[in-house]
Amino acid sequence: MRLLRTPDDRFTDLPDFPFEPRYVELDDPHGGVIRVGYVEAGPADGPVVLLLHGEPSWSYLYRKMLPVLAAAGLRAIAPDLVGFGRSDKPGDLADHTYARHVEWMRGFAFDALDLHDVTLVGQDWGGLIGLRLVAENPSRFARVVAANTGLPTGDIDMPAVWHSFREAVQKAPVLDVARFVQSGCKSSLPEEVRAAYDAPFPNEMYKAAPRAMPGLVPYRPDDPASEANRAAWKTLTELEIPFLVAFSDGDPITGGMAPILQRSMKGAAGLEHPVIADAGHFLQEDKGEELAQHVVTFVRG
């Protein structure tokens, strides 16, 4: 596996992101050692909140939530998925599979950091990966917050807007990461924030992960990940783990999943599931502080 590493100077002077970068190294059978970057805020002995981002963002997406969670005494941990942020970047599209991304985050959370009693916050691919982690390692988790995400199996077709996004990512001669993040927000991003989303990707060589991820979503019943996701659905619907559905009111890609999760997950019964108003797909960007407060209430409640 050919691994690329974004130069550190790409991450200097990022707006509103004062968190010290941390790293763990994972042994990978396909590529030797992969370095995973992450940031952390809050007391080391606080209840753990694992914040998983999606496509094509990185842990910078959680900069508005980290201080709120830390102030409430929670240990908030936001890793960069492999191929994103400060994490190493497998350089070929074929290096990226759904199963590998699940395994990389499992290795990060459990082998490297040995996290227990975790509250998962998963958005976009952070949910596709995180919900698999919960289903396959339920004893490690105390709660789940699903935010604009799902766990597709390919048995139901994805919305037309997602197919358009997938085609645009795969065909773009130059992948404009900041533009895709902006298109998923209700608020207008300042130029320096857009630059921060571009920072992990100095040129097209570094963008294999954001290019690959849309094609890894199971959108056909015979997708390589479909069976594992079906098994995860079966486990998740039977778990007693409290399950909060905190979606925005303006996500055309995942919005239809909110009622399905609420009625399917045993742990969702009896909870008051918030709807984050005036927010798009990237609700952490549009209303991060509000989402963080719901997480605090959920954990502390």
UniProtKB/TrEMBL annotation:
It comes from the Bacteria. It is an enzyme of class 3 (hydrolase). The keyword Hydrolase applies. Its EC number is 3.8.1.5. It holds the Pfam family Abhydrolase_1. Residues 47-287 form the AB hydrolase-1 domain. Keywords: Hydrolase. The keyword Acetylation does not apply. GO terms for molecular function: haloalkane dehalogenase activity. PANTHER family: AB HYDROLASE-1 DOMAIN-CONTAINING PROTEIN, HYDROLASE-RELATED. This is Haloalkane dehalogenase.
